[in-house]
Design goal:
Layout: H1 13-39, H2 48-57, H3 59-87, H4 92-107, H5 121-131, H6 135-153, H7 157-173, H8 180-198, H9 200-203, H10 208-236
Length: 249
């Protein structure tokens, strides 16, 4: 059976390809962040003062890790936008809802003060803590650090919305005749993810099971979008559609 979705618009092949590349890059960044976490010095799990001192001593590694947790949010916005456009012929209203929920949930990640594994704001607090000259001034920054530590363990609505986006886009996918294996896997991944996000404070390392499912779903999705882009280009002719050019006077 062809991997191309009936009704997929060949003119969107660049978006499909961008979605495929973004899915792969997101997984690569997440894996890199996990590797850095495994080989770097273990950060304290509690204590604002200890965390600020840790960040000050491992500033470069800490910033790099936070960026590796955060940048995939931008990439996943592209992935879900590509999926919504590829599937819109199945149900335009459903595609719009699924696309908005999915893209918006990852976009809001940039407004949330923590990444789930730390916070870039912790770097600023660490700098201010190191520059403070009195115990009273330091205490204020320590309190701020403890708030960020607590927020990292709070089940965020954002995380639940992100998993809901996976479920919605997968249910939309089920309306078609292709990608059904990916669709069902997405439903399972989103469902497990929703439970994992709600119970994250008590799951501990069990939360990584959702992470593994998400990685597999993203890789599978990336391959599907890449094949869709390739078939769209092939069916539109021997050369990809070119950007419109103005006729010279």
């Amino acid at each position: 059976m062809s991997g191309r979705l009936p009704g997929a618009d060949p003119s969107w092949h660049r978006l499909y390809r961008a979605g495929a590349v973004s899915a792969g890059l997101a997984v690569a960044l997440y894996v890199a962040a996990l590797v850095v976490f495994a080989v770097a010095a273990v950060p304290p799990v509690s204590g604002g003062e200890e965390m600020l001192e840790y960040v000050d001593a491992h500033r470069t590694v800490y910033i790099a890790q936070q960026l590796m947790w955060l940048v995939p949010s931008l990439l996943l916005m592209v992935v879900f936008l590509a999926l919504a456009m590829a599937l819109r012929h199945l149900d335009k209203s459903f595609a719009l809802i699924a696309g908005v929920v999915s893209v918006a949930s990852w976009a809001v990640s940039f407004a949330w003060p923590t990444t789930g594994g730390g916070s870039l704001a912790m770097v600023i607090l660490s700098d201010e803590y190191a520059a403070a000259t009195t115990a009273a001034d330091q205490a204020a920054f320590v309190a701020g650090a403890e708030v960020l530590i607590a927020l990292n363990d709070v089940p965020a609505v954002i995380g639940a919305l992100q998993t809901l986006g996976i479920v919605l886009i997968s249910l939309l996918m089920l309306k078609g005749i292709t990608w059904r294996g990916l669709a069902w896997f997405g439903v399972v991944t989103g469902g497990v993810g929703f439970v994992s996000e709600v119970l994250r404070p008590v799951l501990g390392w069990a939360y990584t099971f959702y992470g593994v499912l998400l990685f597999v779903w993203l890789i599978w999705t990336g391959f599907a979008l890449w094949r869709l882009a390739a078939e769209a280009v092939r069916e539109s002719g021997s050369h990809p559609p070119s950007w419109p050019r103005r006729d010279r006077a």
